[in-house]
Design a protein that fits this description.
heterotrimer; A mainly alpha (333); B mainly alpha (332); C alpha/beta (495); A: 333 residues; mainly alpha; ABC transporter involved in vitamin B12 uptake, BtuC; two-stranded antiparallel ribbon; 2% strand; globular; C: 495 residues; alpha/beta; Rossmann fold; six-stranded mixed sheet; 32% helix
Chain lengths: 333, 332, 495
């Protein structure tokens, strides 16, 4: 029983330790980052960076990478503002749906053409950004009926509508990835693509689903932000790729694919938000947050790499970062 | 699928049967064809396209992107994908150059130091990547770190050359802008390096098949480091040239360079998995994108329109090249 | 008749892999499929599993005509293959792998249901004690093998094909696998058991079909055969004049290997190579022969042992280290790591010795062209077309490039693995000739090959390997092909 529990905690040990340490450090040097307020601040990181990291994380688990998340968020933000007449919920739903469909198209093309997702999404990154500019008329657009968005500004103890929405999405995606065939197939093609296909997993569909999730989450993030802030600017959210990737990897999603869970992403988002909030509270510029994010990202992939190289596989540093099993086949015939 | 070994055929076939070679030149032909079409269409539709001033503007725009695209080509050729730290690295060069000039340093010294500084930054990334870490994530992180550091130091403000303005920044030599000359020489230099030197050949081979290269004794580590060094030199040149032209810089300089350079490289036909492509092609890609971009500006395309077209072109060409490559691999 | 194959043929370029073979399988029987490497066994398996379509011939399953290409059709027809390479996803659990890719499974994968279902399947293959929640990357090789079999059970397959399933297993584990297979057959399924292991054939199979040079011999009941008879059926290929004469060599060793131990070897190996000698290492899958070559090449890190080259200690730490001392290494799989497929023939040929045709880092185009022309001419590769991509050449010519490129590197020792895999007869003869010439010029050559007749024809000294150990080493004229095959299959001679 205890052994089972420890086994399940192991993959999260390192990010959890990092989170606790970071929280303590930031809380001690930043007076405003204490108590319920601090938890609220961390949860507020989920609607934006959190959702993007979640979607990005799913594509990483699938063995791919969706570089177009920033542009997708911007496009969705614009769509949300443009469709404000559908009401608060309506415009968010529309924006998210459009994004999800676009993501599904991307995933299907990547799967059918068997093209490298990095190469493909660099192109769509530019294309979607262009579409964003076009649909917003090359200038920031504002929500006319700004009172409609008031509910989003309310705070309920440590939550807000946005963060609750984000958390619900996290839970739903988490359940999907763990308990459905489609979800597990994403892990399969990410962990060992050739073997999975040989076993009968469809080649294209898991990719369609992964990229649909990625684009859908990014779109929801953009839509929530736009409605909350009351406006959308076509050049926004270009930095989301960095933050999203950093959060996913910091939390323990493996770049090798086939491993990880939404809990990993959540931990990573929490760490990143703690750092960002702490720095912001001290008046540091956004550029410093980028610096720290970049440094943390580098440190994290170095640790994962070293853990794979040295035989730290059974300590908490290597737990959940196991390398692939060795193939024992000889090369003859 | 593997062929069986040691089987005697019924009715022995001749020992050397060469299949007809597929057209290796086809991708280049298609790109060139597109370029010619684009230019012809531009000339027909836009009378102001074929003026000296406009050509010069195109070449100037193409040069900065082109220098960096050519500089990144060895890295992509050797299978190390692309760098996502392009904008930030060139910005670093530009800001440092302008800052040093503004502080009174002599120009040659400033140029040298900027180049060396970027080489060091590049080698650090190169070592990390050569050791085995993911190049996309590494450069993504490096870019953020560079931006953060420069931003902190400059406090987000504008760095100016002040009284020590650089005079040759917008000059021309025999009517050719200085950026274009540097672009030309740099392209020739890197092309010669890739095609005539041992290390250049090794770069191509590592990109073609990493495992075979290792067995043949080629040092993948050395190839990677060199690729990052060449890349850094190109980044430095781009930053210095722009710094000289504008005599000021901020931490947000070169906002679109990453995207423009990657687009130029891909459109030029260099396969991102390595082994296919050349610096000349990347230069061509930069020119093509500059022509298309210019054509759109002359025809009053909006920012969004231009981006959308650029993105669309990249997606289409990348898919085309990938499909052709795939077909060629399958037939061999 | 469960499965009937008539006059099946398949040609790969200039190589006739299957030449009008006949094959049959009854319900509930275990049919052993034997034959030397390259005799056509794996081609038949590929056709039956739908990976490859035959050029001509008929296939019937349970009386009605069947097309088994592509693999979806083969699976639908009830054919299931257990490959040497497993198709499990290491990061997923055993239970999940058992359900992966199956049709008719509910989209909801609740652990309770998955694990219960898994436990039933695992019990059928004797893995009762395995927790279905374990991820596959933590299983032993034997457990993974049994898991593969369990996956087949889900498919309700009528024809099960096992391709060398016990190659990497220990004795005790082999017994488990054989028991499971016997039980599967007794349930009415038909089993094709491809192997080189004669003891298993006699313990498990009902009948034996032997393939030879792409042709099939009529199936015989095991009860009518003994080891001698089987081996006689398998051999009988004319060696012909493909091999050059053996040379003479000095007595002083150029290469001395002492106590070499590495992954794939269960006992340390010591041997000597003399200047002008071709030493042949032969054994089946997992025998350890290729482990020796790979260690000596600097590609596989040894755990023990010393090697001396011309009296000096040789470091096996890396490929670069061994290459610098003059060790050439021609790999077993040219497509994977032997050639640069998209690059010109010329660039391939010069790749290991670029520095010797350059000065100060600059490649002398003239010198490179001259040297590569020389090498190409030696191997009868058209010298006028060295600028085209290697991938356009036939398999045999590609192999000539893979081998030939090392000639210009002026090696002291040349290591080769499976040097004529997928190569037609003409190219093979040329490669053997060049190797002998290289040898006569003072280079030592070690060849590892699973093709016993190749080793017999080419080598001056032959060492046999079995299950990670070197079993015997003798001069070529002390071996007969019969004795060699027996030694490799670890059979005592009847006489």
């Amino acid at each position: 029983m205890i052994e089972n529990f420890i086994g399940r905690i192991k993959p999260y040990a390192l990010p959890l330790v990092v989170l606790i340490i970071t929280w303590i450090v930031i809380a001690s040097i930043t007076p405003s980052f204490r108590g319920a307020g601090s938890v609220y601040a961390v949860l507020e990181g989920f609607p934006m960076v959190g959702l993007v990291a979640l979607g990005l994380g799913v594509t990483i688990i699938a063995g791919e990478l969706d570089l177009s998340v920033g542009s997708m968020a911007a496009l969705a933000a614009t769509i949300a503002v443009l469709t404000e007449s559908a009401g608060l919920v309506g415009c968010i739903v529309i924006a998210t749906l459009v994004g999800t469909v676009l993501g599904a198209v991307q995933g299907t093309l990547i799967g059918r053409l068997q093209i490298n997702s990095l190469v493909f999404t660099i192109g769509t990154l530019i294309l979607l950004r262009g579409l964003t500019y076009i649909s917003s008329g090359n200038a920031p657009i504002i929500i006319q009926n700004f009172m409609m968005t008031d509910p989003l500004l309310d705070r309920y103890w440590i939550f807000s509508i946005s963060s609750i929405t984000a958390l619900i999405v996290f839970i739903l995606i988490g359940l999907f990835l763990t308990y459905t065939r489609w979800g597990r197939e994403i892990f399969a093609i990410g962990g060992a693509r050739n073997e999975a296909i040989a076993a009968g997993v469809p080649r294209v569909q898991p990719l369609t689903v992964s990229f649909a999730i990625s684009a859908g989450c990014a779109s929801l993030a953009g839509a929530l932000a736009a409605t909350r802030g009351g406006s959308a600017a076509p050049q926004n959210y270009a930095d989301l790729l960095l933050s999203g990737a950093a959060a996913a990897l910091l939390g323990g999603i493996s770049l090798y694919g086939g491993r990880g869970s939404v809990l990993n992403v959540a931990l990573g988002v929490a760490v990143l938000t703690v750092v960002a909030t702490g720095l912001a509270a001290r008046g540091s510029a956004a550029s410093l947050v980028q610096l720290v994010t970049g440094a943390l990202l580098l440190i994290m992939i170095t640790i994962e790499f070293l853990a794979g190289r040295l035989t730290l596989k059974d300590t908490i540093f290597g737990a959940g970062l196991r390398g692939r099993s060795r193939k024992t086949t000889d090369t003859s015939d | 699928m593997s062929e069986p070994s040691g089987v005697e055929p019924v009715g022995a076939a001749p020992s050397q049967s060469t299949r007809r070679p597929r057209a290796d030149w086809l991708p280049q032909a298609i790109i060139a064809g597109l370029a010619v079409t684009a230019i012809t269409v531009s000339i027909i539709l836009t009378p102001s396209f074929l003026t000296i001033d406009n050509i010069r503007a195109i070449l100037r725009n193409a040069s900065i992107v082109g220098i960096v695209a050519v500089a990144m080509t060895p890295m992509t050729l050797s299978g190390n994908f692309v760098s996502l730290a392009i904008s930030q690295s060139s910005m670093l060069a530009m800001v440092s150059f302008v800052a040093m000039i503004g502080a009174g340093w002599p120009q040659p010294v400033a140029i040298l130091i900027v180049i060396l500084a970027l080489i060091v930054v590049g080698i650090v990334q190169g070592i990390i990547v050569a050791t085995g870490l993911n190049p996309i994530i590494t450069t993504l992180a490096a870019g953020a770190i560079i931006y953060g550091v420069v931003s902190e130091i400059t406090g987000g403000g504008i760095i100016r050359a002040g009284d020590n303005l650089v005079s040759w920044g917008s000059s021309t030599l025999a009517g050719i802008p200085i950026q274009v000359l540097v672009f030309l020489f740099f392209t020739i230099l890197v092309t010669i390096l890739m095609s005539r030197t041992v290390i250049g050949r090794e770069t191509m081979l590592v990109g073609a098949n990493r495992a075979t290269a290792g067995i043949s004794g080629i040092s993948i580590f050395r190839v990677t480091i060199l690729a990052f060094v060449i890349f850094s030199v190109g980044l430095a040149l781009a930053g210095i040239l722009n710094g000289a032209a504008f005599n000021q810089a901020t931490a947000r300089s070169f906002p679109n360079l990453t995207i423009d350079v990657i687009a130029a490289l891909l459109v030029g036909g260099t396969a991102i998995q390595g082994g296919q492509g050349s610096p000349l092609r990347s230069a061509g890609g930069a020119l093509l994108i500059a022509v298309i971009s210019n054509m759109m500006v002359l025809n009053d395309f909006s920012t969004g329109g231009r981006l959308a077209v650029q993105g669309g072109v990249v997606v289409v060409i990348v898919v085309l090249l990938d499909q052709m490559r795939r077909r060629r691999m399958a037939s061999s | 008749m469960r499965l009937g194959v008539r006059r099946l043929s398949k040609r790969y370029g200039s190589v006739q892999a299957l030449d009008e073979i006949d094959f049959e399988l009854r319900p509930g029987e275990v049919m052993a499929l034997l034959g030397e490497n390259g005799a056509g066994k794996s081609t038949l398996v590929k056709i039956l599993s739908g990976l490859v379509s035959p050029d001509s011939g008929e296939i019937e399953i349970d009386g009605s005509s069947a097309t088994l290409y592509p693999s979806a059709r083969s699976q639908a027809a009830g054919v299931a293959v257990v490959h040497q390479e497993y198709s499990s996803v290491p990061t997923l659990s055993v239970a999940e792998n058992l359900v992966l890719g199956q049709k008719g499974v509910s989209p909801l994968w609740l652990p309770g249901r998955l694990n219960a279902r898994a436990k039933k399947l695992l019990a059928a293959v004797g893995l009762d004690n395995l927790d279905p929640r374990t991820t596959v990357d933590r299983l032993s090789v034997a457990e993974m093998q049994l898991l593969e079999i369990a996956r087949l059970l889900v498919r309700d397959a009528r024809v099960l094909i096992f391709d060398e399933p016990t190659a990497a297993l220990a004795d005790r584990e082999i017994e488990r696998v054989l028991t499971v297979i016997r039980r599967l057959a007794s349930e009415g399924r038909s089993v094709i058991y491809v192997t080189h292991r004669l003891p298993e054939v006699f313990r498990l199979a009902d009948r034996v079909t032997v393939f030879r040079n792409g042709r099939s011999l009529p199936a015989k009941p095991v009860s009518e055969l003994d080891v001698d008879a089987v081996i006689t059926m398998m051999l009988g290929r004319e060696l012909g004049t493909m091999f050059p004469n053996h040379g003479s060599f000095e007595s002083k060793p150029i290469f001395q290997v002492d106590g070499l131990l590495a992954s794939g070897l269960t006992q340390s190996v010591s041997l000597e190579l003399r200047r002008g000698e071709i030493l042949g290492l032969t054994g089946q899958l997992g025998s350890g022969a290729s482990a020796v070559i790979q260690s000596l090449a600097g590609v596989l890190m040894p755990t023990a042992g010393h090697v001396q080259l011309d009296g000096e200690e040789l470091s096996l730490r890396s490929r670069a280290a061994t290459l610098k001392r003059g060790i050439a290494y021609c790999t077993a799989d040219r497509k994977r790591d032997g050639i640069f497929a998209g690059r010109a023939i010329r660039e391939n040929l010069s790749s290991p010795w670029m520095r010797s045709v350059s000065s100060g880092g600059w490649i002398s185009g003239r010198r490179e062209r001259r040297r590569t022309k020389e090498v190409a001419a030696q191997f009868a590769i058209d010298v006028k077309r060295l600028g085209i991509a290697v991938s356009t050449l036939s398999g045999g010519n590609q192999q000539k490039v893979a081998v030939g490129k090392w000639l210009g590197a002026e090696p002291r020792v040349m290591l080769l693995e499976e040097p004529t895999r997928g190569v037609d007869i003409g190219a093979r003869a040329e490669i053997y000739q060049r190797l002998r010439e290289l040898c006569n010029s003072g280079v030592g050559i070690i060849v590892a090959s699973s093709d016993t007749s190749e080793i017999l024809g080419l080598s001056d000294t032959i060492a046999t390997f079995y299950r990670g150990q070197m079993t015997r080493i003798m001069a070529y004229n002390e071996w007969t092909e019969d004795a060699l095959v027996r030694e490799v299959m670890h059979q005592e001679s009847a006489t």
